[in-house]
Write a structure and sequence with these properties.
The protein is an alpha/beta fold and about 270 residues long. The protein is built from 8 helices and 10 strands. A 5-stranded parallel beta sheet has the order 4-3-6-7-9, with helices on both faces.
Length: about 270
Amino acid sequence: MGFVAALLLVAGQAYSGTTTAGAPIAVTCVGDSITSEGGNLTYSLQLGRLLGAGFNVTNAGVSGHTMMNDGLCGLGSGSWRRPCLPTSSMPSCYGNCSYWGTPTFAALANCAATNDCPHVITIMLGTNDAKYCNWFGPPNGVPSGAGTAFGANYVAMIKLFKALPTNPKVYVVLPPPAVSQCTATGPAGNATICLAYNMSYTAINVIYPVLQRSIAKTAGADGVIDVWTALNGTSISPHASVDGIHPYPPALGVIAETIASVIGSLERGPA
């Protein structure tokens, strides 16, 4: 039957893409460990259940990876068992952990070769970019902490995905809130007590909600999906995540519901 138009109805506006007649709408969730982890309750699996048989959701999360081309790998720790983490205990970052360099990204960028391109792509990257060694270090360019490289690389990825043969709808998904679980400091930590994995509270909770909207507009993304607000921002429940960074399954369910509320109105065209 070839290709037929698909109709995406978001906020009352119609968008046209392409999907094989009678086939499910293919959704790919790009992300890091927040996307890849969760066992049988990852947000992508929960999203698939919410959307139903008319959709096929693929998890394209790669743990520990960044949007920045030169993003560093960062170790560290953090859990409710050890919530007050001394900044001095964080190990040095190393190597390259850019999502751009993964086989997962290569397969998606070259999906035309296998005739397996998605119709919807959600991007939820940025949490690992917010590690201090990345956000305030050389990987992010100058001036320090401004998100120069992060923004440029994000715009490039959106434009690359928008140019795939299926003319996919591409959405920027704001990452979940990041908070310290140390009751002595409150959610922001302080100069000596850091968030898990030495994430920047300011980058994720103050800068991203503004910057990522600007990135989406600049790159011509099809919308912003606000998971950050859906999880109550910096007022997120201390019981919603393992370590102030990685959501438990119920919070992953909130992420799934938030994404479904935006893309769930996508319908196949007539066969």
